[in-house]
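can u do me a favor
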């Protein structure tokens, strides 16, 4: 009986190994979005305008870090690129509904989002900073002064700055807007004490409004984030391809060089941006 059981155990083990090898050597999943992109000849990218990640120039054309990244990604795939501007608060539902293939929009990796979408390895790293109204918050001594029921903080709906505002300043009122321009306008108008967003957007806003706004916390980041592409769950081939694309372009320095152009004090592109 022991011999029979041993033979059965060996047979099961062989079957498992054989199945594993067969799975390993199987062709790419025909259901993968990568196959769809190649057949279609077009990469559809979900994004939302957000300086300097993605924005419109004075002729109405898209420009920015995300635009450069997605354009090169499509070129490397040998396909065209189509940008699908989407409200940030609805961008994950739109991805799941297959309105586009991938989110390339400066989306920070969070556990909550990861329950709904898959993330590639990071392709960018940023931090949240805060711009404040000089009249309303100019006398504040430190960040604890913002944690008060009389304080209002604005942010972009569905974005990580809103979560950060609630965590850091639970006593304050958090007001959400559909885009950053509206959130910062509230501060400029004196309707909100401060607005949190990914750097360098707050810095750019203060630079444009030096008489009425300043950088809270001496401009130091309130947090740090890792940004990645967002993909529908269950697509291992797509996750592998896009992550390896990021790896290759990180190793050869292209992503860092491109990121530095848009984020590291470059001013050549600023005059090209349409007024919000």
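np, heres the sequence
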């Amino acid at each position: 009986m022991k011999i029979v059981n041993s033979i059965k155990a060996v047979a099961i083990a062989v079957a498992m190994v054989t199945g594993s090898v067969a799975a390993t050597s199987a062709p790419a999943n025909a259901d993968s979005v990568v196959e769809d992109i190649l057949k279609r000849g077009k990469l559809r990218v979900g994004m939302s305008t957000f300086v300097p990640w993605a924005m419109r120039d004075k002729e109405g054309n898209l420009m920015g870090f995300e635009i450069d990244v997605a354009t090169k990604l499509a070129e490397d795939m040998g396909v065209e690129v189509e940008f699908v501007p989407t409200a940030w608060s609805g961008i994950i539902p739109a991805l799941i509904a297959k309105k586009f293939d991938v989110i390339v929009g400066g989306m920070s990796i969070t556990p909550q989002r990861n329950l709904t979408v898959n993330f590639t390895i990071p392709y960018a790293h940023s931090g949240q900073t805060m711009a404040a109204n000089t009249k309303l918050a100019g006398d504040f001594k430190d960040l604890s002064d913002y944690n008060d029921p009389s304080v209002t903080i604005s942010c972009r709906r569905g974005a990580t700055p809103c979560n950060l505002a609630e965590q850091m300043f639970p006593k304050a009122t958090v007001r959400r807007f559909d885009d950053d321009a509206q959130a910062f306008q509230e501060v400029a108008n004196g309707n909100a004490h401060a607005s949190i967003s990914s750097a360098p957007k707050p810095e750019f806003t203060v630079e444009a409004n030096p008489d009425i706004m300043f950088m809270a916390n001496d401009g130091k980041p309130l947090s740090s984030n890792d940004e990645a592409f967002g993909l529908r769950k269950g697509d291992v081939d797509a996750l592998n391809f896009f992550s390896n694309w990021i790896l290759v372009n990180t190793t050869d320095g292209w992503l860092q060089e491109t990121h530095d152009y848009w984020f590291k004090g470059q001013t050549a592109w600023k005059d090209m941006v349409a007024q919000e």
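The chain has two domains: 33-123+228-271, 127-224. hope that helps!!
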